Write the structure tokens for this entry.
Amino acid sequence: MRGKFGRNYRLDIFTPQGKQITIAPPFSIQFSINRNTLASANKGSMTLYNLAPNTRNQIYKDRFSITEYWRISLNAGYGDRLHNVFTGNIFEAYSYKQGTEWITSLDCFDGMDAIQNGFTSMTVEADTPKENILSNIVNDMPNVIKGLFGSIAEGEAPRGKSLMGQSSAVLSQETDDKYFIDNEIVNILNDSEVLPGAVISLDPDDLLGTPRRREAFLDLPTLFEPQVKIGKVYNIESLEARYNGQYKIMGFTHNVTISSAAAGQATTNLSLYFGADGLQEVS
């Protein structure tokens, strides 16, 4: 719980015309963020309160206008220590009045534009490096960039073939669904492979309930952990010995309220993977 005081946030919205809208305290926000390593778009839902009329009138997107790309980036944390907790595309945004309050609702997806609007048509010759094939597919997906490729991208194509269709479906086929989009970055990793960088450690005082072990997985409820990242290593110590060790972060959900008017919840539920054969860092 060290230093977990003074919740803070910064929300940046970029319209299709390139205009930036920034929202920060004292405006209140509630958000629910779900990020995981599945081959699907991660979701973020955000609710803002009592924005100025000019601001809320600019934040409107029809859910059926799928070709309009509204980029959104939410940074949150404690005090001045803000971490990026969601980057993606607004799916739907609108405002309405409830009682005396104006409420602005945003439903967002990370990688939605890439999954919906990417199209791949290519011919692969025998012995083409798999990494080149996968890189070309990712390049066909709009508004995402290539991240790290693990062992799935090793080797060469054993024979020639043609690849055609929605890029996300082709990528699923070529990786056996072992890709994920997180903060608009496409990574291709096996379950036992992790992203490089500093290990994130649990402060036992942050634990909100009893961990639940399910075979090689551990579900862990904690206070809001803004620094967690999908695919990184999470270290647990000072609990029951059976829970201690290093895990891969396979998914998490943030449910957070940041408001000067009410305390509200601020929790993170982590889904961790122990790794049947240990964890290997990909560089």
